[in-house]
Amino acid sequence: MHTMPNSTQSRESDTDIILDVRKLRTSFRITGEWHAAVRDISFTLRRNETLALVGESGCGKSVTALSVLGLVPLQNGRVEAERIQLGEHNLQGLSEEEMREIRGNRISMIFQEPMTALNPVLPIGHQVAETLLYHRKMNKEEANKTALELLDKVKIPSTSSRFKEYPHQFSGGMRQRVMIAMAIACKPDIILADEPTTALDVTTQSQILALLNELKQDSGMSLIFITHNLGVVASIADRVAVMYAGKIVEITDVNSLFAQPTHPYTEALMLSIPRSDRDIKTLHSISGQVPPIGRMPDGCSFAARCGLEQPICRKLDPTLQPIDVGLTHEVACWVRGDYNLTTIEERANG
Description:
This protein is an alpha/beta fold.
């Protein structure tokens, strides 16, 4: 077995790391049994860095974000981790009251559909100011003044007149800007953006991405950007973690991912992107679908859809292994990873 330390371990002492997630496992109870939707994943996030979580629907991207924030419902879900370290706080094991002090303050989330995330019966100005009243203990006048400034910062036109309007009076793009204003209100260390541009047209998508980049550079915050759109990833991410069936199967910097996509799943995702610079008669698709959490196969979860499948792929699940000297590009694939296959096959047959 390859004995080199993985990139997460090699950066453990890095003082720039603001979030360190180790062996995160999130399970849900289905018909009386627990099944893992996120399976022992580890990643780090540096200050002022954008990490993109990429993959098809059902790969565990949003569940990862909800797990970090402690928003997985306890009635039928449970979150286990070696640690979820946010600065000096280990979020794993904190009480709900302690998590309320961190959510919206140290770490915020922009949800995928603002119309369901915003309260339809409260003016948008009140909803932005509410965060400041709770976390910054401002009086109402101070909170309203700061909320106006935030709405202006996210480029909502005529903020004074729109301050008292309701979510249904805003377009999808303007509602998403309101969500961003709420997320940055307390100047958090990290923002989790869960597919914030999915329901928007291309022009509005571009505007929202430019706004997030601008705010990130101005404030020095870090961003975890969840998406299935690799085009968006290219324009906003510093590093990319490709997820499949609840696991990270490849992680590297954004330039390396596009220059050298290594996992067969990443390769297939790249091939499925329409290209304006090439004459393509047919669009590539990935056959099959992500396995449901209640019927996860033995071995590599992508094996049934993979054109490079080997016998070992059906027996053992590969772990992330570095494929470069700098330990910055890791892949979990028996065919493409740097493994001692003789030793692995002996284990598989033994």
